[in-house]
Amino acid sequence: MSQGIENKVVVITGASSGLGEATARHLAERGASVVLGARRSDRIAKLAEELSAKGYKAKAVQTDVTDQHQVKTLVDTAVNAFGRIDVMLNNAGLMPLAPLERLKVDEWDRMIDVNIKGVLYGIAAALPHMTAQKSGHIINVSSVYGHVVDPGATVYCATKFAVRALSEGLRKEVKPYNIRTTIISPGAVSTELLEHISEKDIQAGTKEFVSKIAISADTFARTVAFAVNEPDDVDINEILFRPTAQPV
């Protein structure tokens, strides 16, 4: 039975900023080998170089999670470089909030592609390796909005509820392979997520609210580390956290 973070191979999507970047730093500092996926190749390349210069193990692979082939390449690169994959963190996500009546259909499609299909593609890429190993850990990122629904966030909430449903089904299906599953649902965390909101009035109001209560992305990184660090016979299935000041 293994325990801890050291020497584990961790693949992270959405690793170019925010939650993904913070988690990459946190786990690398604790001895994990991190493989970073994101569309912004310059950012993840810089992060991988920075971590490698400090003596940590890191690789960067440009990845658009809406492209199944690219997600498979990301995971296969990790396995080819380090011999296995221990943790798949499906973190990439978008949150362009707007009321349904504004008919931001293109944004709905993009959220479904990234927030739902991106998670499924991550599962599809990691699962064959993990079932063959008879071990592994898939961590999917939902949200407080995967537990509650607010006006103006309906489609985003729907995608994050879907992540929780997918994760629970996955949990039940992978028991024969000794694979662990975790859903992490953050509340207001200081990241670039609000930059995805195209409706300026909604963006301004959301930023004003979040700026008063948001906690750092390191909080998320520590929750990932907690779940990963537990022994293999402990399956931390769901973590929901908020700033203490967040009422919703």
Automatic annotation (TrEMBL):
Residues 8-192 form the Ketoreductase domain. GO terms for molecular function: serine 3-dehydrogenase activity. It holds the Pfam family adh_short. It catalyses: L-serine + NADP(+) = aminoacetaldehyde + CO2 + NADPH. Keywords: NADP, Oxidoreductase. SUPFAM superfamilies: NAD(P)-binding Rossmann-fold domains. Its EC number is 1.1.1.276. The keyword NADP applies. It is an enzyme of class 1 (oxidoreductase). It comes from the Bacteria. The keyword ATP-binding does not apply. Homotetramer. Belongs to the short-chain dehydrogenases/reductases (SDR) family. PANTHER family: DEHYDROGENASE/REDUCTASE SDR FAMILY MEMBER 11, DEHYDROGENASE_REDUCTASE SDR FAMILY MEMBER 11. Catalyzes the oxidation of the hydroxyl group of serine to form 2-aminomalonate semialdehyde which is spontaneously converted into 2-aminoacetaldehyde and CO(2). Also acts on D-serine, L-glycerate, D-glycerate and 2-methyl-DL-serine. Does not act on O-methyl-DL-serine and L-threonine. This is Serine 3-dehydrogenase.
